[in-house]
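Sample pair:
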Amino acid sequence: MGSGQVTDWQGKNVTVAGLGVSGIPAAKVLHGLGAKVTVVNDGDDARAREQAAELQALGVTVRLGDGATLPEGTELVVTAPGWKPDKPLFTAAHEAGVPVWGDVELAWRLRELDGRKAAPWLCVTGTNGKTTTTQMLASVLKAAGLRTAAVGNIGVSLLDAVLGEEPYDVLAVELSSYQLHWAPSLRAHSAAVLNLAPDHLDWHGSMEAYAKDKGRAYEGNQVACVYNVADKATEDLVREADVEEGCRAIGFTLGAPAPSQLGVVDGILVDRAFVENRQQNAQELAEVSDVRPPAPHNIANALAAAALARAFGVPAKAVRDGLRAFTPDAHRIAHVADVDGVAYIDDSKATNTHAAEASLAAYESIVWIAGGLAKGATFDELVAKSAKRLRAAVLIGADRALIREALARHAPEVPVVDLERTDTGAMLAAVQEARRLAVEGDTVLLAPACASMDMFVNYNQRGDMFAQAVGELGT
């Protein structure tokens, strides 16, 4: 079962590691194919028991509170992507010669089940921008008249996409480093690695291991490996990848593109990769103003999406139409309001330093609201690069001292307000302090560079509280 296409699941002993958004669909699909499925789960709370009861009613065996022991007779483990590779369950599987797949690997193996026509995958990964780029890509593909969906780490089940009754023409697939780690046989039509910065190192163990897992997106690519010209590490991953003969390296850049690149010239997104005589010619795709919001990192996202779409043969007009039709998700550099000539921007999704750096680079004079859970991050590089843009900073959250210390080292002239309170009401106080510090023409930017769970349920609630606080400024 370790390699090749599995055609007969009847009676196969499969262990599914973890309940939740990937484990439950995997268990149901495998059970429906005739496998003998056992689900193991670390937790044994009320939610887990409710999920277990649903599966047990179908005839699936569920073991709660024990995710470490490999059930006897297991022939395959299918894991939730977030389970760390060093868990005892996987050690036992390795010692027993039992393969371990993620939900993405399972979907890849099942895509041609029962002779169905498999849709090509256009894959997107990177430290930041994955979701936006994948959604942009899906919008462009739809504008070209293709039946498609944004799937994968974006929250739409890949299993549902590949096993649905009506086949897709092509899939826009967002992949996390976790998912790629557990997807050894994935071979995309084309893929993009948007950027690389330290993230999830507690899971991967090192930056090298994290980059290697991201680089799996390029393995076996058929048409294009899309990389970021400004991030040499992504190009290095292309050089290291084992791709199909004829697969091309395609760069994207915010500057004027060289041959085999997409870039920007005089406010126009242009293609010098998928055109005839690319040494001399370029194809206009869209205007920078067609990208919402037209912040530099979001223009880079649009170029990556355009490169993947063009690799699939999408015409230039569809790129323009798809970008114009795209509406970004909430809390991604979203304009909340203008109050007294000051813009208030919600980028609560900027949960790490790399994302916050891109957000800060989009504005000239900023009152920065930052802080939360640092997840082991350091802030010196972020502050040093952004110092000249900062009018002031308002700090919240459990690890705000780390940012305050970085500001003292690299931007000592920037006024800092340190809010000690850590209840959700701190956001209203932060916005009020930011208003006091801002002058006409400034931007008050929520780009926390930290996770939210010390004070909020998630980054969505954090952004909602920011917007609510801004709304109260005029009352």
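The longest strand covers residues 36-41.
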